[in-house]
What does this fold into?
Amino acid sequence: MRAQEANGRVLGGLDLRDQAGRLRGVATGVAVAATGLAGGIGRGALALGSGPFGIQRSSSAIVARASLEAVAILRAVGRPGQPPVPGRAGAARAPRSTLAPMDEPAPAPAVPAPGRAISVAELLAIGTELTVGETTDTNSGELARSLVGRGIGVARVTALPDHQPTVVGALRDALARADLVVCTGGLGPTPDDLTREAAAEVCGEVPAVDPATLAWLEAMWARRNQPFPATNIKQAWTIPSAGALPNRHGTAPGWWVDRPDGRVIVLLPGPPREMGPMWRDFVLPRLAERGAGGESEVRTLRLTGIGESQVAERLGEALLRRTNPIVATYARREAVDIRISARPEAGRSAAAVADAAEATVLSILGEHVWARGDTSWADALGGALAARGWSLATSERGSGGALVALLRGLAALRRAEVVAADAEPPRTDGYAGESELREAERIRASSGADVGLAIRTEPDGRDTAVHVGVVAPTGRHAERRVAFQGGAQGADRAAIAGAAVLQAFLRR
It folds into this structure.
């Protein structure tokens, strides 16, 4: 107790001669020993470990227990110079509190926009599970697409382990290069979740428990009739320069941190189901308020029936090396994509620059374009079928359900059958495609669908031969294609070939 009182006297500057001051000193001392969770301790926290967070890293269990004691005392008596809040004794608010105690979190308040333009961003994906290969980082791709689409260039994407010095170094380096640094991951309650600590260290600030955020977290457990885990207290931390970003799908609020030079740090949770909504609902609106980005136009053309190397050869080096617009090719699982990214140039709008490039691409490869943007095969075929008011049934032989997987989510699909490759071979009358047309007619009639699609695969050397049959109210069509590669990859490409044949039929 004496040591705690001493800490309170030295670090908090408290008069411990009265009972209230003594309790506040105890609370402050406990909070300091728990890594400075109580506010107003500033410079003295550095003496408690290796940096302001040394004790927390060495004994998280002791810290969590001490944190609960500190929070309880602060609630009881308040902080120095602060009267108790009516209806909740001593519930002093940390800077820029944003989370309502018993309600859905409210967004962080807007701040006056500094003069610095936000035009370049860097992304830091934090989590040892990423750097050891246990988890794939999908967040950075979503964030990069979102930023580039708003005219904010992404200079780097970096994966980092849960190691505070590494994260601190990467964050400092990123702030030296970029206007906006977005971190994902490391906001959980466990000792290895250190992103808050790293951001606080970079900012030179000490985390404190935000009582409103803590009450919001406690209410979540109370609704479940469960005790609140002490380890989750750190999810209520904040720093003076940070505003909380509400999390409607988890327990980890994010941070929006304004730096004195106008740069911005954003901390987001790692789970995509939490990260995505927080980014869309609370970060993008604030970036818009800041006037981030600039005029840009991004378009994607999706191609089938041609490989990426052939696409690049036909487009030519001159087009692919242009800096505005940037025309790039990407080999995806279900398509080869051509992405056009344009900025205003010579009095022309970004859209006009993109229009000219798109017209050039279509003049060269238009017959291979089956969709735009992030349209899937299920989306494309669903739209084509809906335009005619038709439904679909499918049968596939030898492709192991690849067609079913490709069309997952297609509302117009009435029935899908999968037949093993070694099943009894179909009867034919000697002309190409006859068995596929018969199978397409059978599945159409038995399901009551308007359209029947049948595909059959067989090895063709190292590749896969694909036999396709389509039967619809307007006619019949059979076709043979060759899908590059065999095995599972060949089966996936055979399914795409079948979908492409059907789409071409529907476009007639």
The chain has a mean pLDDT of 81. Residues 2-77 form one domain.
